[in-house]
């Protein structure tokens, strides 16, 4: 009996597990726990018979003075723990590295433009076959080495065990694996592999475990590390990462295509995951994937706060929020970038007609929508309008949002400011942002069915509306100068009066101590509303409350920056440095703000 193998865990496998757990803890969700537990179960169940065979056939061994004693089918308990902790560590690293990735946009529709509808792009077939050939050759070569029972036995046993699983996972998820950035695929394999090569070298040198001489090649990757051991850690980490990737591929299919999966579960069963993976990529809805790609690009370009926040949402709700953002952004830009006030009013009228069709029933809805977009809207807006998750949103909120945009147009049409009093300001903010907040909440209620009563939901919706108003006040406080350039002053004229300012004077000189007084007043109002509404976030389903805290806090942080002296301005706007945004997001997820 001895503790040397246990010490390897204490020194080398448990510390990275703790570090990764601490790092990822604020982002950890039920779905992550499900994925990791699922993979650990598969790893343990599939490795035990194989490892037991290797130990019984003396391919490798453990001197009795290095292990505590208890065994499972001749495998020391420390070794069983190794399968678990390696799967845990590699999985967690994968989750850390892939958190910002929105997987739906990496689904590839296997259809080339040069081919008739439904034909598979030959390029994809080649990729698939190449991978299958590599793993197929691995299986055959491994089998031969095992049969020869010589120096290649250990390599052969690794190959015949790992390559069939890799072949299966590759065949199911190859297009997803190829399409993702290397930081999501190669990096989570390479980092733990090289680390474990180092740990293995130390353990082999100390004799904690021993690889028998007659069944290995005797070739070393570096002094003390047998190539078989190097191959073992490379393939086991590849298996773990491919397993995670296949899981994410299945989830992406479930959450991307409502025509295939209208009500995807928040925690899909293994059979639902396999079914999703088996859907041929030729059945994927290409316009849906393009719509999501456009939405991500738009969000990344236009809002750093919401881009960061969106990565903390998972599954269906992340998709829905992105699509809602894309619609709101496009609608707002159509009105803001119009060449004249009448042009802007025309866009609002068109958007109203669009909603009329989007909310209509009947068999010609899709055709009418398509015709309306083709004849009435610029091409780059089509995907955002077409993919609006209208069925999950109250039409009234979208109508009110458009009414809010009408206020924006009034600035160019009328000589007087359309915002005279605090009540005018509140109504405007409720329309353009309170509605957005309520729509975000509707999507959350839709994605996470709960037993909450209608009355409780209404209370949360009302708090959400107040919080939306708070965010809009921060938005106005940030943009006084930018808005003045567009000919708009959203500060109520009664407030301007009290600060010895006029609508016209702020339009011409949107800076100075008096303007700062009004900005401060607006920020005070924003924080008052925020304080009064923030508790309602805790009533949301747990999967949504953390990410919603991040969304709100990232935006309110702009307000906090504005309250500091000498804040940094970029393109006329106060900005929150990236490191500060990340710290705020972490604290918000951990519930510390
Ligand atoms: C995480 C994620 C992807 C969220 C998406 C949120 C979303 C759908 C935002 C739409 C944004 C948008 C373009 C709306 C059009 C009207 C508008 C301009 C509203 C203002 C947003 C400011 O965005 P930005 O700074 O990029 O705009 P400009 O450059 O100035 O044009 C708003 C300030 C509204 C933002 C409001 C929300 C995102 C609602 C957030 C949710 C809550 C407050 C609910 C909180 C819940 C409880 C229970 C209190």
Portion of residues in beta strands equals: under 5%
Task: Tell me the count of domains.
Answer: 2
Largest sheet composition: 2 strands, antiparallel
Q: What order do the strands of the largest sheet run in, or round the barrel if closed?
A: 1-4
Shape: elongated
Q: Can you give the mean pLDDT? A: 94
Ranges where pLDDT stays below 50 over 5 or more residues in a row are none
* Count of runs of 4 or more consecutive helical residues: 24
Q: Write down how many β-strands occur, each being a DSSP E stretch of 2 or more residues.
A: 8
Nearest-angstrom radius of gyration? 29 Å
Structural class call reads mainly alpha
Ends apart, CA distance between termini: 50 Å
Q: Which ions and ligands are bound to the chains?
A: the ligand CC(C)=CCC/C(C)=C/CC/C(C)=C/CC/C(C)=C/[C@@H]1[C@@H](COP(=O)(O)OP(=O)(O)O)[C@]1(C)CC/C=C(\C)CC/C=C(\C)CCC=C(C)C
The portion of residues assigned to helices is: 55-70%
In short:
This protein has helices spanning 4-24, 30-56, 77-98, 122-148, 153-179, 182-185, 187-206, 227-256, 270-278, 286-302, 304-310, 316-336, 341-358, 365-376, 382-386, 395-413, 422-447, 454-478, 480-485, 493-498, 503-508, 513-533, 542-563, 578-589, and strands spanning 60-61, 71-72, 75-76, 210-211, 220-222, 225-226, 569-570, 573-574.
How would you describe what is shown here?
It is a single chain. The protein is built from 24 helices and 8 strands. By secondary structure, it is an all-alpha fold. The chain has a two-stranded antiparallel ribbon. A two-stranded antiparallel sheet has the order 2-3. A two-stranded antiparallel ribbon has the order 5-6. A hairpin with a 2-residue loop joins strand 2 (71-72) and strand 3. Helix 10 (286-302) packs across helix 12 (316-336) and helix 13 (341-358) runs antiparallel to helix 14. It is elongated. The structure holds ligand LST6JFWI. Residues 299, 302-303, 306, 309-310, 321-322, 324-325, 328-329, 332, 432-433, 436-437, 440-441, 460, 463-464, 467-468, 471-472, 475, 479, 533, 536-537, 548, 551-552 line the site of ligand LST6JFWI.
């Amino acid at each position: 009996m001895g503790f040397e193998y246990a010490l390897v865990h204490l020194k080398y496998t448990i510390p990275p597990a703790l570090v990764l757990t601490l790092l990822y803890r604020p982002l950890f969700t039920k779905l992550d726990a499900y994925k990791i537990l699922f993979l650990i179960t598969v790893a343990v169940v599939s490795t035990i018979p194989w490892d037991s065979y290797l130990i019984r056939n003396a391919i490798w061994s453990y001197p009795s003075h290095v292990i505590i004693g208890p065994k499972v089918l001749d495998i020391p308990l420390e070794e069983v723990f190794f399968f678990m902790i390696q799967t845990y560590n590699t999985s967690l690293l994968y989750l850390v590295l892939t958190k910002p990735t929105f997987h739906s946009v990496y689904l590839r529709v296997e259809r080339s433009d040069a081919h008739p509808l439904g034909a598979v792009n030959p390029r994809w077939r080649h990729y698939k076959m190449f991978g299958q050939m590599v793993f197929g050759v691995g299986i055959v070569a491994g089998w031969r080495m095992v049969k020869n029972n010589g120096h290649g036995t250990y390599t052969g046993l690794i190959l015949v065990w790992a390559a069939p699983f890799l072949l299966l996972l590759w065949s199911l998820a190859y297009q997803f694996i190829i399409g993702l950035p290397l930081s999501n695929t190669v990096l989570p394999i390479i980092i733990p592999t090289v680390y474990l090569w180092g740990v293995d070298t130390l353990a082999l040198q100390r004799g904690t475990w021993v690889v028998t001489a007659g069944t290995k090649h005797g070739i070393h990757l570096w002094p003390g590390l047998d190539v078989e051991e190097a191959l073992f850690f490379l393939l086991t980490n590849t298996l773990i990462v491919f397993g995670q990737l296949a899981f994410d591929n299945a989830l992406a299919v479930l959450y991307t295509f409502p025509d295939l999966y209208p009500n995807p579960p928040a925690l899909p069963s293994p059979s639902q995951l396999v079914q999703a993976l088996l859907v041929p990529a030729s059945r994927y809805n290409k316009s849906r994937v393009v719509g999501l790609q456009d939405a991500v690009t738009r969000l990344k370009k236009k809002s750093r706060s919401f881009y960061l926040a969106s990565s903390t949402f998972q599954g269906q709700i992340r998709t829905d929020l992105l699509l809602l953002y894309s619609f709101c952004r496009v609608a707002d830009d159509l009105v803001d970038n119009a060449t004249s006030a009448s042009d802007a009013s025309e866009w609002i009228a068109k958007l109203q007609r669009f909603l009329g069709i989007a909310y209509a029933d009947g068999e010609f809805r899709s055709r009418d929508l398509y015709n309306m977009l083709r004849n009435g809207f610029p091409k780059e807006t089509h995907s955002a309008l077409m993919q609006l998750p209208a069925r999950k949103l109250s039409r009234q909120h979208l109508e009110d949002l458009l009414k809010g945009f009408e206020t924006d147009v009034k600035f160019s049409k009328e000589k007087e400011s359309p915002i005279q009093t605090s009540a005018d300001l509140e109504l405007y903010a409720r329309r353009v942002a309170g509605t957005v907040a309520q729509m975000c909440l509707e999507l959350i209620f839709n994605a996470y069915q709960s037993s909450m009563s209608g009355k409780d939901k209404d209370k949360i919706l009302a708090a959400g509306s107040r919080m939306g108003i708070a965010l809009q006040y921060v938005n106005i406080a940030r943009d006084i100068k930018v808005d003045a350039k567009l000919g708009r002053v959203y500060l109520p004229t009664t407030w301007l009066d009290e600060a010895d300012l006029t609508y016209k004077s702020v339009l011409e000189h949107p800076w100075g101590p008096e303007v700062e007084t009004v900005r401060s007043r607006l920020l005070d109002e924003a924080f008052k509303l925020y304080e009064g509404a923030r508790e309602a976030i805790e009533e949301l389903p747990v999967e949504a409350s953390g990410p919603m805290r991040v969304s709100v806090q990232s935006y309110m942080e702009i307000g906090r920056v504005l309250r500091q002296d000498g804040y940094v301005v970029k393109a006329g706007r106060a900005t929150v440095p990236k490191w500060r945004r990340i710290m705020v997001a972490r604290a918000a997820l951990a519930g510390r703000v």
